[in-house]
Amino acid sequence: MSETNAPVNSRAEAAPLRDASTVMLVRDGAAGPEVFLQRRVDAMAFAAGMTVFPGGGVDPSDATAEIAWAGPEPAWWARRFDTTEPQAQALVCAAVRETFEECGVLLAGPTADSVVSDTTEYRVARRELERRELSLAGFLADRGLVLRADLLRPWANWITPVIEPRRYDTRFFVAVLPDGQLADGATSEAREVHWRTPAQALDAWRGGADVLLPPTWAQLVALGEFASTAEIFAADREIDPIMPVLADLDGKQLLQFPDNRRYFADHPESSRLRGSAPATDSSGRR
């Protein structure tokens, strides 16, 4: 929580925005679609202990890298996310790279219509990517792999409020877990990982077991409206940037964003929200 006693929607100098990508990895379960979630380690400098989706910052070098590419071209992604083609390419690359680094799921294959079914042979490369000793373009080229942009779909765009010291312009993607692949917790950034239906994840939050910031909460609510991963992947989302701002709500200074009254009403610490403003992390790890 970020405590405040007065409305503050600007800093002396707002922190610069950094582009980031977040991927909601989904699969079909017995009770409906499930989404992969991580609880960040407590030692993290940012969003410590939060329950989030895999994701992270964009590498600017991906904007112009030569990459074997299958699926919608950068121009298509640029239109959906209202950005430039080079930046759209970098956002998609970040989505693929961060998903592989953080849970071992690789959205790439040896051909434009195939996807790797076992990623264990790339274990060393995964660690090198995480340490930034290897670029995504270099990894794909060395292994003769094609980036499968068609395994991703655009979902949302959240921007960190100007009151925060670190700010991110994050594009959310959705991807269905490829057949044969397993999502794991073999990353230094996660304390634990799990698959949950959106309803289960929201129940855990309401019960105080997990901490969900508004962007994560909003996506779980949206995912909960679908009965299958096929419906999620086929959804044609209207993507408008959302940047929460502080404003008066029933005499309290709280962050304003779509359906925020529901968020605060269900929040496990709702009784402590008088005069406070929960921080919203749009860093790519939501």
UniProtKB/TrEMBL annotation:
Region (Disordered): 266-286
CDD domains in alphabetical order: NUDIX_AcylCoAdiphos_Nudt19
Entries under InterPro entries matching the protein: NUDIX_hydrolase-like_dom_sf, NUDIX_hydrolase_dom, NUDT19
UniProt keyword Manganese, yes or no: yes
Superkingdom field: Bacteria
Cofactor(s) of this protein: Mn(2+); Mg(2+)
Sequence ranges assigned to domain Nudix hydrolase in this UniProt record: 16-226
Gene3D superfamilies named in the record: Nucleoside Triphosphate Pyrophosphohydrolase
Keywords: Hydrolase, Magnesium, Manganese, Metal-binding
Membrane-crossing residue ranges in chain numbering: none
Protein name per Swiss-Prot or TrEMBL: NUDIX domain-containing protein
